[in-house]
Design goal:
92 residues; mainly alpha
Length: 92
């Protein structure tokens, strides 16, 4: 039940983000006039958005671990170990 509660807002957010990407991408189409340029700009925008999002998440995680380590170094080390185990590929 708890997972279903957050599903609808995530879907709405995805639709809004998709609409924003299409609108921003279509602005470049007016200059070039070619559909292939629109697709290329859309791919470039999506890659840039993904890189920016990954960088932002990494900074936020770093700030979180810094704040936790200022209060309790053992807890920060334990949290880091859990995060490291979840993010590594165990089947590789």
């Amino acid at each position: 039940m708890q997972g279903q509660q957050f599903r609808r807002p995530f879907i709405k957010t995805a639709y809004i983000l998709l609409a924003a990407v299409i609108i921003i991408g279509s602005m470049g189409l007016a200059n070039s006039g070619y559909a292939i340029a629109f697709i290329a700009q859309l791919i470039l925008f999506t890659v840039g958005l993904a890189v920016g999002l990954a960088f932002t998440i990494a900074v936020m995680v770093g700030i979180f671990f810094t704040a936790v380590s200022m209060n309790d170094k053992e807890t920060a080390a334990e949290l880091w170990g859990v995060l490291k185990n979840r993010c590594t590929c165990s089947s590789c």
